[in-house]
Amino acid sequence: MAKLLIVDDEPTICWGLTQLGESLGHEVATASSAEKAFQIVDQNRPDLIILDVRLPGMDGLKALGEFQKLLGNIPVVIITAYGDLQTAVRAIQNGAFEYIVKPFELTKMEKVLQRALESVGGQQSEQDQKQVEGLVGRTTIMQNVFKNIALAASSDTNIILSGESGTGKELAARAIHQFSDRSSGPFVAVNVASLSMTLAESELFGHSQGAFTGAEKLRVGLIEQAHGGTLFLDEVADIPLSIQVKLLRVLDLDEVLPVGANKTVKADCRVISATHQSLERKIQEGQFRHDLYFRLCGFQIEMPPLRDRQEDIPELAKHFLNRLAHNKKLQQSQFSDETFAELQRRPWYGNVRELSNAVEHAALLARGGIITPEYLPEPVSESLIRSCESTITDEEQITENLRQWASSKLLDTELTGKLHEEFIQFVEKPLLETVLKKENHQYTTAARILGMHRTTLKKKMDQYDITPE
């Protein structure tokens, strides 16, 4: 039998949790304030505390620290009806065992109590009062995201953020950084998809002076710039295979070798990656190294699409509207109930980013008045979003595929001295086959298109065993 202390000023919550605790065979005491709870603790040390955040007098998060001073690493389960990211971070970083948003199912609380009583609780840490722009939500799915962000911030594990475009993956990455022990260090954000394929290695790892044509001076790479802080790799699925090998070395050794250099430099950074693609599928297709995936994915957080958290839309819309009034000095407008209904009706394929743009569009038209549905822009179609996510050209894709082919062949030591010949055979045969098929195997015409002598074409057909269909 364990001793439970319930600290909440709502009698119904105390009654329900008391019934639960006693049904599990535990001794239960209740207190309507932190101050009364301290008096109980002086007389009878509990084994576990269930603590509300909003209390008369001292609030629950401050009381959490006091309980830890008095009782050490006792499991404390935080409950609140006002869940936000900052509260979740404070609770987890200050050593709460669990963070639960009201209303909750007693079956869920029962499982938490069972786990908590088997543990020794968390460690106390100092509170960081920073706030993160745009991470708003009271739905269960977002509360779970807040909790996972808090857990990620309390460690130095590499994180992967997954989810559709526009769901706030970079905001989550910045939140993890700001609430982590690395918050005083730099936060370096890199959109991998925007890097030039030919210069990506130099951008990430840096280069020494004279490393290649045009390298007129030393360049400090983005990874080295993140030393002591956080490196955020957005669209990490687009990293070329040749660079994945070097990135793996950085993660293993906390050092980077700039292009053209013969000496490594220290690069101790926490890596947070983001992608809207399936890395598991990229691994199966041979486009992403499985060992790099495991090094990057110490902990994964899925950012939900906005259509799965429609109850958060009014609060998000008001947040964006207030931000516009403050940052862009637009006149303060208000939403009509009909507009809120319309916002919650839409599918939001562009997610939170699309909602933010829609609010700004409507606020400009309303000019300080009531925002009615006709001020909203047309919703973005799903087909447009999907097409925007596939902007790479055929030529760029072919070039990248060839780079990845070359990188994989470099691992085969038996091809040393024969790699160029292997490459020519790899690309020449499908070219000849395609041209010959188009010209119905008219050798003279096909040879003219290819720019080679008819006899040369015939020899290559024999070499590659190409026969008329």
Would you write up a description of this structure?
By secondary structure, the protein is of the alpha/beta class. It folds into four domains: 3-129, 3-Layer(aba) Sandwich (Rossmann fold); 153-302, Rossmann fold; 306-380, Helicase, Ruva Protein, domain 3 (Orthogonal Bundle), CATH 1.10.8; 412-464, Arc Repressor Mutant, subunit A (Orthogonal Bundle). Helices cover 46% and strands 13% of the residues. It has 20 helices and 16 strands. The strands form five sheets. A five-stranded parallel beta sheet has the order 2-1-3-4-5, with helices on both faces. Helix 13 packs across helix 15 (351-366) and helix 19 (443-450) crosses helix 20 (454-464). It is elongated, with a radius of gyration of 29 Å. The termini are far apart.
